[in-house]
């Protein structure tokens, strides 16, 4: 083909809105394209429980607006408009960040749906509208490590007020010792306790499993709690006095109560995740980045650079850091 012919072909493709790369793509076989309502229902049944819990609110919003439209109909501009609408109409709370998180979650929820649509051959990767919408830039987190005096105040209030101070004190100690997330604590079962080695098995986000050292004192309280409150071996460990399993609402109640006694807690919107920041900051300052990373349960490549492959900390190092943190010997700790 001559140069003039090539140029003419390029001009024709340009007018038709087709890129040369698209000519080499395998065409997606045409077939009945489901509605957004129908397809989101299918995707919801296919994703992990944690993903469904995060995205469900935003999927329901999408179904309200576009439920009867076909999956391949919404455009990037429409997704952007819907994200801005969600951002402007989000429920304003004390810790609100201008609706950025809501807009980000909406786009993430749609990206999840359209990833499945691409995999199912309903649209091509090039026609995925959600990937062409940028997420709002995240603001720096306002969470930080708490000083010892403030942490002592929180523990004092939790252990001397409320309808179950024993439960709340143990809950706080569990998070302070392990730096676990709420999901890890709520998913803890009696069969996840290794009493001989003072280890607990945590199931956290991303369906990750890890063994985390705890102090002998905390282990004794966890075992006693499970026995006294009737936790089945494979059932949830943390329970109310009546034997009913606690939910995330217990955390809301706990921090609201603490905030009433300690105004700075309410003003700064201190939450359980602040305890994770506090513990991991202390571990990093005293035992280094590698131990803090392992202590946090961060194993993904996105958490650090390639160097992290060569500086992984083991369970003994985590136990040693815990022993120093709690002032109690641990079966797996080594002399440092």
Automatic annotation (TrEMBL):
GO biological process: DNA integration; DNA recombination
The organism of origin for this protein: Saccharopolyspora phatthalungensis
CDD domains: DNA_BRE_C
GO function terms (MF aspect): DNA binding
Origin superkingdom: Bacteria
PANTHER family per UniProt: PHAGE INTEGRASE-RELATED
Protein name: Integrase
Keyword DNA-binding included in the entry's annotation: yes
InterPro entries, A to Z: DNA_brk_join_enz, Integrase-like_cat_sf, Integrase_catalytic, Integrase_recombinase_N, Tyrosine_recombinase_XerCD
Taxon lineage: Bacteria, Bacillati, Actinomycetota, Actinomycetes, Pseudonocardiales
Chain ranges of the Tyr recombinase domain: 141-323
Keyword Oxidoreductase tagged: no
Keyword terms: DNA recombination, DNA-binding
């Amino acid at each position: 083909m001559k140069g003039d012919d090539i140029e003419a072909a390029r001009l024709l493709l340009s007018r038709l809105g087709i890129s040369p790369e698209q000519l080499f793509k395998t065409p997606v076989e045409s077939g009945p394209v489901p509605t957004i309502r129908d397809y989101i229902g299918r995707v919801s049944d296919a994703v992990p429980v944690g993903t469904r819990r995060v995205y469900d609110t935003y999927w329901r919003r999408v179904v309200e607006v576009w439920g009867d439209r076909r999956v391949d109909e919404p455009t990037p501009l429409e997704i952007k408009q819907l994200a801005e609408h969600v951002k402007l109409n989000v429920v304003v709370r004390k810790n609100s960040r201008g609706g950025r998180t809501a807009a980000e979650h909406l786009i993430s929820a749609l990206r999840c749906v359209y990833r499945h649509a691409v995999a199912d051959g309903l649209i091509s990767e090039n026609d995925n509208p959600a990937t062409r919408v940028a997420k709002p830039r995240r603001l720096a987190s306002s969470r930080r490590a708490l000083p010892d005096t403030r942490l002592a105040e929180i523990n004092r209030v939790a252990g001397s007020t409320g309808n179950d101070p024993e439960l709340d004190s143990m809950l706080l100690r569990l998070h302070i010792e392990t730096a676990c997330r709420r999901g890890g604590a709520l998913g803890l079962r009696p069969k996840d306790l290794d009493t001989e080695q003072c280890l607990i098995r945590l199931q956290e986000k991303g369906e990750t499993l890890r063994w985390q050292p705890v102090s002998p004192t905390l282990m004794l309280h966890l075992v006693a709690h499970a026995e006294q409150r009737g936790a089945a071996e494979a059932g949830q460990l943390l329970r109310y006095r009546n034997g009913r399993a606690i939910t995330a609402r217990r955390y809301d109640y706990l921090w609201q109560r603490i905030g009433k006694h300690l105004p700075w807690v309410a003003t700064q919107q201190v939450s359980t995740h602040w305890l994770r920041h506090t513990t991991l900051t202390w571990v990093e300052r005293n035992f280094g980045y590698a131990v803090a990373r392992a202590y946090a349960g961060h194993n993904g490549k996105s958490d650090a650079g390639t160097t992290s492959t060569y500086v992984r900390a083991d369970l003994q190092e985590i136990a040693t850091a815990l022993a120093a943190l709690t002032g109690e010997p641990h079966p797996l700790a080594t002399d440092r």
